[in-house]
Structures are given as C-alpha cells and as structure tokens.
Amino acid sequence: MWDDARQMNALSVTLALITVLGVAFAAVVWFVRQPAFALHEVAIMSPLERTNAAHLETVIRDELAGTFFTMDLARARNALRQVPWVRDVALRRHWPHRLELTIDEYQPLARWNDNALVSTRGEVFTARADDGLPLFEGPEGTTADMLARYRAWNGDLQPLGLSIREIRMSPRGGWRLKTVGAAGPLTVELGRDEPGERLARFVAAHARTLGALDRAGTRVDTVDLRYRKGFAARIPAFREKNARPAA
Asked: Does residue 15 lie within any of the structural domains?
C-alpha cells in the first residue's frame, strides 16, 4: 500500500477529513456551551393550584443545568416530577434564553390508607391535603377497584341523602362503607359476596325501613347487609340481638 500513490492519497484525504470533522465537532461543543446561550428565564405557563411555588423554584435552581442547546430535558422533567402535586411537566425551549414549563397537577379524590392520596384518574401519589377527602382503605393494588365502586355506590346512595366518607376493603375482600347524611353517620356492612346487589336492595328498601325510622326520630348508626334476606339495623338506644349473618 505504501508504494501505491492512489491509496496513499485516499488515506491522506480520509485522515484530513476525520481531523476536520473532529475539529468541527469540538468547535460546536465549545460553541453551544458558551454562557451567551445560558437560560436566563424559566416561565411557568400554567396556574399552580396546589404545587408549592417555592419548592418548584428550588428544584429549578438546583436541577435544571445547561444552556439552551445542552440542557437534558428528560432529566429536568424527571426532577420536576418529584415535586409534590406535580403529575407531569412539559418543557419547551424558547429562543434565546427562555425555558417554558407547563405543569399538570394531580387532582385528589380521596386519601389512601392514611399515608397517600388517590387522584381522579386512580393514581396513587404522595402529598399533603387537608380537604376533608374521603378515605379509601384496602390492600395494595386495589385502588382502581375501590375507585370504581366508590363512584358507583356514591351515586346509588346520593338519592337517599347519603355520601360515602370511608370505603374499606378487608384483606379477605369484605366491604364496609361509612356514610354521612342528615340523620348523622351511618356504617354499612356489605361483606364479600355480591356487595353491589346487596347495596341495591338496601337502597330499594330504604324509604320503608330506615327512612321510616328517621321520620319517626329513631336514629340508626349501622346496617348489616350480610344476610340473604333483608338486613339488620343497629339502633344505639337498643341492645343488639344475636344473629348470624351470611358471608
């Protein structure tokens, strides 16, 4: 090859081209890292209802590094998503020194097992809320089922003037509701088997049972629907009688 002038010329051109490309790449890297392209302004384009603006500002100051060209948007997005109440964030560069953030916040529906929250989309997330939210309590992985039943059963009970404040699912799959209404709090034991059908029978019989007692001034604080026919009601002023509910 060393005696072949054509091959030597081709090799020289190739090496020269590699050198030029290397120098050009280094120049581009140097150019995009210059302070002249630093991001001087971060604008939040969406209103913040729950996200702490000071916390968000701290993350922006500590985590969003780089220039207009070099900022790692995926890394910045992941850092911002760790801020409480931030569900997601979209980042957009605006020439020459501006970064625009659009924040999508979680919308809370309920508390989850006293240490987290459930969003209106059924997502479990961690944040603080003092909104008097209802409580969901159940095994891990049951959030979607609880959310669906809460919405359905709350709708069933609303015509009775009742709203669900707690919905609990036991490890064995038994359901219990705690509701509030004009007559005060009411606990509803649904059990494991066909809870929706049991609740529907209770709703259908309410006017001539608990409704009649309410109108007579007799308060009921618990109803047990775990019976094949009918249900039991606990009146605080009376002693409970022994009965054997179905599973």
From this structure: no
Segment 112-153, tens digit of pLDDT: 997 899 999 999 999 988 778 999 999 999 999 999 999 999
Alpha helices of the chain — where are they, by DSSP H? 5-32, 53-63, 73-80, 143-157, 195-205, 210-215
Specify the amino acid at residue 92. R
Strands 222-224 and 184-191: parallel
The domain boundary residue, chosen from 105, 122, 149: 105
- The pLDDT of residue 97 is 64
Residue 94 has a pLDDT of: 74
Instruction: Note if the bond before 108 is cis, omega within 30 degrees.
Output: no
The number of domains in the chain is 2
When pLDDT is cut at 50, 70 and 90, the band that residue 76 belongs to is: confident
Single out the residue of 212, 197, 237 nearest to residue 160, CA to CA. 212
30 is a domain residue: no
Looking at the fold, whether 91 and 199 belong to one and the same domain comes out as no
CATH number of the structural domain spanning residue 98: 3.10.20.310
d(CA 2, CA 243): 104
Q: CA torsion angle for 72, 78, 80, 82 (degrees, to 10)?
A: -160
**Tokens at 226, concatenated:** 């775990």
Angle made by CA atoms 149, 150, 155, in degrees to the nearest 5 = 100
